[in-house]
Amino acid sequence: MIDTALMAQSDLILCMETGHVEALKIEFPHFKNRIFTLSEMVDKPYNIPDPYGGPLEGYQRMVTDVERLVEAGFRRIVSLAEENAGKRVES
What's the structural domain count of the chain? Predict the structure, then answer.
């Protein structure tokens, strides 16, 4: 479960789906500048399909996609996290 305390201690929140981003921004508007999809880190926003309950191949595709996005977006991920590090957000 995500709560205000968890959001406050996070410098960057990366989600797999735009719906997750939207829901978090609505529930925690004070942290909206920290919430993105992982795919936004490479400037190509899209949803990463959740393989839950599906075949093993779906999990493998998801892991490959996440690894590729983290590697390609690493500099931006670090930059955004550093930019938000230690910033106090009033809730």
Answer: 1
Q: Report how far residue 4's alpha carbon sits from residue 87's, in angstroms, rounded to the nearest whole number.
A: 15
Locus of tokens 């977006």:
73
Model confidence pLDDT, tens digit, residues 44-53: 999 999 999 9
**pLDDT tens figures, 5-30:** 999 999 999 999 999 999 999 999 99
CA R_g for the chain: 14
Range of the domain at 35: 4-84
Pull the structure tokens for residue 78: 């670090």
Q: Which residues are CB-contacts of 21 (< 8 A; sequence separation ≥ 6)?
A: 15, 35, 36, 37
Closest CA to 22 of 56, 50, 47: 47
**pTM strictly above 0.85:** yes
